[in-house]
Structures are given as structure tokens and as C-alpha cells.
Amino acid sequence: MYKLYAEIKTAGGIRAYSSYDNECFLFTLTVSEGRIKGEIKAKKDFEAKTLYLSENREYSDSDLFFANGYQSWTTSREFSKNDVLNGIMKAGEISEFTRALAGISGDYAFARYGKKGCFHSYTYCYFRKKDGDEITLYGSKSEKNGFTVFEADMNEGVFRIKKDIEGLFLSAGQEYTVFDLCALRGPYEDAFDEYFFDFAGFSKPRISRLAGYTSWYNYFQNINEKIILRDLEGLSRAGEGAGIFQIDDGYESAVGDWLLPDGKKFPRSMKYMADKIHEKGYLAGIWLAPFNAQRGSLILKKHPDWVIRDNSTGKKKLGCVGWGGAYTFDIYNEEFRAYLKKVFDTVLFKWGYDMVKLDFLYSQCMQPRGGKTRGEIMCDAVNLLRELCKDRLILGCGVPLGACMGVFDACRISCDADKTYESLLNRLGVNCEVPSSPNAVNNTVFRRHLNGRAFLGDPDVFFLRDTNIKYTPEQKLLHAEVNSLCGSVLFVSDNAGDYDEKTAALLREFFKERKASEIRAQYTGDEEITLCYTENGVYKRLIFNVRTGKSNITDFYKP
Fold first, then answer.
1. Do residue 360 and residue 284 come from a single domain?
2. Overall average pLDDT of the 523-541 stretch
3. Is residue 438 domain-resident?
4. Which site among 53, 206, 385, 481 is 20 to 30 Å from 253 CA-CA?
5. 22-51: pLDDT as tens digits
6. How many CB atoms lie within 10 A of CB 95?
7. Closest Cα to residue 285, out of 343, 347, 225?
8. How confident is residue 426, by pLDDT bands cut at 50, 70 and 90?
9. Which residues make Cβ contacts (< 8 Å) with residue 226, sequence separation at least 6?
């Protein structure tokens, strides 16, 4: 039987409870046939602080725990009891100011990092024996009542199932479902099929693959009509495998001013750009950070009352550090919702874009508010975006994954890649979300089970160009191989028109749909991953150092 621990706040103050039935609430737990369900009924009004179930569990040196990170970019992998998951690291710990900035995109304000053998996972987790294929999988059916957090303290011998219910208010007599979980045991692929399709009830994504171009990783915000039209022409080198061309950040006059494109950069309008993309036979994609507005944007100057305020200080709450800092508008503000509807109606149905890449979504749920938990807020935000986009494609990014499973068509499963594979920033470390090609490769490998189940997995770009990057030929091949094996959203930001014929042929090869099966992966050294799979009847073993990118990839692709 699981032990209960709860902290709640009533008129009499904060109290802790370990009994299922007490003067404040009745907690009912049902465990049967691979399902765990926990419900609470309030006997008096209270504000929830903490609630979790715990059980003793023995961990051996061969036990591995998969931890799904807080959001798209957060480090996610299998851990052993001798590992440590660090949170804010050296480059982020220089001062209180840098620590505050480093903590914005993650869960550092309400989660524990840095303890050997102690890990936490959002929405789902699994246990596996090293070299084994069978897993024990725990998964939440929905995060609409709050994020579900699984904690493994492998040195203390404890497993906890926690609900992030901070900020929840319940009135006397009100009932609330805290947990609705599966607990499954079986082969890796079978267990994930059962979790997503049978238990959670998701359908397979309505698209099977997106391959093409995005502008960000060659130019960042320095794009214009000439560059986009040139690279659009160049994508013809990718052949039939390419199906989408996406314009990323940089077309707007300021983040937040989505309906005011930069007329100097794009004098013939964003509709003109979508039309030119369609003429080439591609879907047209465009990037937005729909909840955010940078300092100096016109929309922020006009509507400062739309901004989410810090619960403690009442000041505008910074949602992102990019663009010199950006604030987040509140989805529960009706005027902002009306503005957001106008934005999507314009971008999708007047300009004619087929897909939106929606970024920095985590900023909407950085703190509980209005009696709602972080998870409830994030689910409300994701469902609002789905409603506004109607039947158009959504690629999510920078978002807690549990909220968009079964809702978005595709979602980033890794942090941003870096134009330098092994950069100084990678080695020093800032946080678990910082742009990092090694971490992008790691996350892509260990979140591969989401691809084609929860949504199409987007591992971010790979690079084949020779300019404006610091990758060895070996690193380029490794990154492309991992992305095409473990994801179904395949982007380059290269001008393929600059490729020689050998590189163009490689791009066409990586854009093809892979028929790999029996994909297995695990850390076989401190920084070494072994990834095994069978393709076209051939068994392959890819062994690589995730930090340096050194591998045996040239056994498969001759440079």
C-alpha cells in the first residue's frame, strides 16, 4: 500500500497529513489491473500545497530509471543510481541575477536537482534493467489537473508519485481526481503502445512525416525576402522527400507584433511568401511565440494589463530571456484571447500558412494562478491553441510534453541544436534547457518512443553545410543519422543550393522515410551511447560519444 503525504493550507494554517481520512479530506486510492487512481474529497475549504504517494523500492546497480524532463528542451535520459542530474550549472551560478535568468525555462524553483541517485520525471517514467528490453512503465492519462511527477530516490530506496497541485483551491464537498495512472510491464515498444493507444486513448498522428527547411540555424533573425526565396529555390536539391518550408523568427517587426511584419525585410508581404512556397509544392510553415511580447514591442506598450504578474511581487513576470527579455500575456484575459484569435486567423487563413511552429509555450505556466495548477494552465493553453488553429498543423516547442500529447501534430523532443557541436557553453553548462547539440542528440535517442505515438517527434535540425558551423564531417553524419532514425520531423537550415552533388544525395537519403526496427539504446559509458537497430535486414550498432560526437558512423556512410 502506498503511503500518503499531503500539505494543505486552511484558515488554521498549513498542516501535514499522512492518513487517507482526516478532518480536512478523504483520499481514496484504487490500485487494480495495471491502474492507479487517486481521488480526493474536501471536507473543508483548503489550498493544496503538496501531495504524493510513496513506496519503498530496492534499486540495484543494474536498475535504470528513465526521467522525462520538464519541457521540450530539458535533459531526458535513463539514469543509474550512480548518476547525478545537475540543474543550474557553472555558467548559470555566477550571480543571483544569472541564476534567476537560467531558471526561467525550467522547473528549478519547484524541483530538486544535484543529488546523486535522485531523479524526477514528468507525466511518465519507466524502470529497466541494463541490457534488458522489458520495462515497468508508469504514465498519467492526462495532466489537466496538474503535472504528474515521478521521483526515484535510488540511494534511499524510495519511489514517489507526486502531483504538482500547488495553487489548487478546493471547497468543502468538492471532489478532485489527483491521479489516473497506468502501471504496465512488458517489452519496451509494446508497453509504450499500450500506454499511448490503449490507456491514454490517443490516435496515431494524422501525418507521418515532415521534412524540409527552417531558416533559424543559418541566419537567426537576420532573414529577408531575398534569402528566403534563394533558399526556397535551393531546397529543390532535396528531391521528393522535402515537403515543408518554414520561415522562422525574424520576419516580425518585434516579438508579439505578429500582424506587423518587417516591411523592409519582406516588402511583398508574408502572404506573398506563403504563395511562393506553395508554388514550389511545399507546405508553408511560420514561427510564432504566441504568448510572448518583447520589451519595446507595440503590443506590450499598448496592453501592459495583459501581462502575467509575479504572485509574490506583483511585477510583470519575465517569461523568456531572448530578444532582450520578453513578458507573457495571460490566456485568461479575454482581450488577449481575442487578439490571439485575430493573429491566427490572419496568419493561417489570410496569409495562408499551413503549419505554425509555436515556441516558448512553457512561459504560460511558470507559476500557478487563479486557483489553477501549472498543469491545468498549460493544458488550457495548448487546447486554446488547437482551437484557434483549427485543422492547420501545429509544431510545438518549449512546452511541457504531457500537455500537448495527442493534441499537437508534432512537438520538439530536444533542446535547440548549436552551430558548434562541442561548444564552450556545452562544456560549462548553464541549465538542462540550454542550446546544445550533444543534449539534443541525447534527448532524441531517449525520447524516441514519443515519435508516432504522442505526436511526431521533432529532434531539431541537423547540418550538412560546410559554412557557418563548427561540426566535423563525422559529427554531421552522426547528428543526421540519429535524427532520421528517432524522429519524424527532419529539418535543415542550409541553403541546399550550395551543396555539391554528394551532399545533396546525402540530404535526399536522410529525408527518406526509414524502415528501421528493434531500436535499442543505452549508455554504455559515462558519455558513450550504443544505439542498435535493424534496417533492410541489416543489423547495425552505432556507438558514439555524445559529448564529442566521435563515433563509428562512417561504417554506414563513407565520408
1. yes
2. 96
3. no
4. 385
5. 999 999 999 998 999 999 999 999 999 999
6. 9
7. 347
8. confident
9. none
φ/ψ of 12, rounded to 5, equals -90, 0
Question: How confident is the prediction for the chain on average, in pLDDT?
Answer: 97
Whether 477 and 551 map to the same domain: the answer is no
pLDDT digits (tens, 9 = 90+) for 337-372: 999 999 999 999 999 999 999 999 999 999 999 999
User: Position 246: which residue type?
Assistant: Q
Distance CA 249, CA 273 (A): 14
- Return the CA Rg of the chain: 23
Q: Is the domain of 80 the same as that of 147? A: yes
Distance linking the first and last C-alpha atoms of the chain: 57
Grid cell locating 311:
504572485
The answer for 514, left when phi > 0, alpha when psi is -120 to 50, beta otherwise, is: beta
Q: Is residue 521 situated within a structural domain?
A: yes
**Cα 257 off chain centre by:** 25
Indicate whether 474 belongs to any domain: yes
pLDDT score of 283 more than 90: yes
pLDDT at 173: 98
Whole-number pLDDT of residue 90: 82
Q: Are 328 and 307 in contact (CB under 8 A)?
A: yes
| pLDDT tops 80 at residue 100 | yes
Query: Can you tell me the distance from the alpha carbon of 299 to that of 365, in angstroms, rounded to the nearest whole number?
Result: 21
Contact 76, 69 (CB under 8 A): yes
**Are 304 and 316 in contact, with CB atoms under 8 Å apart?**
yes
CATH number, domain with residue 219 = 3.20.20.70
Cα(255)–Cα(260) distance, integer angstroms: 10
Q: Are residues 82 and 141 in the same domain?
A: yes
How high is the pLDDT of residue 136? 98
Quote the number of domains for the chain. 3
Final residue in a domain of this structure, among 199, 229, 258: 199
Q: Among residues of the chain, what percentage have pLDDT more than 90?
A: 96
C-alpha 280: how far from chain center: 31
Where among 135, 169, 199 does a domain terminate? Answer: 199
Q: How far is C-alpha 172 from the geometric centre of its chain's CA atoms?
A: 37
Contact 409, 177 (CB under 8 A): no
CA gap 308, 316 in Å, rounded: 6
Kindly state whether residues 464 and 550 are assigned to the same domain. no
* Cell numbers representing residue 253 in the block: 517587426
Query: How many other CB atoms are there within 10 angstroms of residue 204's CB atom?
Result: 12
Q: Based on the domain organization, do 122 and 96 belong to the same domain?
A: yes
Asked whether residue 159 falls in the same domain as residue 41, the answer is: yes
Contact (Cβ atoms closer than 8 angstroms) between residue 410 and residue 456? yes
Q: Mean pLDDT across the stretch 469-489?
A: 98
Range of the structural domain that residue 168 is part of: 3-199
Overall average pLDDT of the 80-102 stretch: 92
